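Regression test attached.
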Amino acid sequence: MQTPLHKVQGMGASHTGTGHFWYERVTAVALIPLTLWFAYAMLGLANASEVAAISFLARPLNVILMAAFMVITLYHVKLGLQVVIDDYVHGPGMKMFLLLLVRFAVIATGSTALFALLRIASL
Amino acid sequence: MAAPLSTSGPQKPDLTARPLSPHLTIYHWAPTMIASITHRATGIALSMGAMVLAWWLVSISNGPEGYQGFYALAGSPPGLVVLFGFTWALAFHFLQGIRHLVWDLGYGFKKETARMTALLVIGLSLLIAAAVFVFVWTGHAGYLS
């Protein structure tokens, strides 16, 4: 006789994960051109003066591309680190803690980067 | 087998002392294995890199003084080592990521193909990282300043 106990205990298949799989691929595809642009921007700003960096990042197109690169990268990071934690951490308390830590760190890093970009645009 | 000999009567054997099957020390390191675990390692490293990037943006927004501090740190010898590491990590993760996307489309699963593409990704990433550093060293960088 089967009871719903296994559902309460969290056993069995999760029936979720397609979203994670899909968004990891979507962010990866988006990051292909964005990374190439990022490499172009970084090489262009190597050894540059602060004025050059500020004037480069103050232009609207570059702000948008850098913001998009940061946000999409951080979403990709969140998805990727989630998989790593799922693979190696099994204690429920530590796993929950680490998953939340990743989520909060990604949000904090993203907010910081976006705030910095807005500040640069106003310089 | 693992029961310790003792004179204080029968004791339970230490079940945690049973032999484990060897893995990392025994299995032959194939290029595909190396590429796979390196993809994970570079992914983790690049997560820190994303935070360094946010820090870079903040230091620019702080104006010239904060900027100088960051650039002095980045230009120091350990800073350059870290930058080279991030450059290679990004190149590798980028190329291996494309290899993953090709697999998602259904191509490249034959054993020989997978082995060759793994070697290609490893070699190409080192080449790209070296090329980037030569590019900067010979003064071709900074074209946006």
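Expected vs. actual: identical. The domain at 31-137 of chain B is CATH 1.20.1300.10 (3 helical TM bundles of succinate and fumarate reductases).
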